[in-house]
Specification:
Strand content: 5-15%
Number of helices: 8
Helix content: 55-70%
Structural class: mainly alpha
Low-confidence stretches: none
Shape: elongated
Distance between the termini: 11 Å
Length: 143
Amino acid sequence: MSDIQNLQLASIKARTKAFIIDDLSITLVVFLLLWDKITMANGDLLTILMVMNDAFYQIILLKFFYQTFFIWYYGATIGKFVAKIKVIDFDHFGRVSLINSAVRSFGRIISESLFYVGFVFAYFTDSRQTFHDKFGKTLVVDA
């Protein structure tokens, strides 16, 4: 895949599917890790929200390491595997470096923190890059 003409950009639909699967996966892990505290809340929504709020930084770290590791090591998260898309380096169309993967992951957390505005970038760029793709110098293509 050394030639840009051979690249097929991932569709917004595939990226959305991957996003939903990844967020559900993270949510499942968080619920499993916090299950004891959540069950002690006896269904009280306010208490459950307080438990989640207390774990905010751990959840952010989990998301950061999940995105960083999977993009660096596999080129795709679990959601991206299911959606049959992958992340590549924007400059040489190969594997994403650990640094660029971490930068991309950090940019994604910023995008999520700002009401997902950074994700909207994909609708307005020819390369369908989100804020975190531009920030991390990556491109999302069909696998």
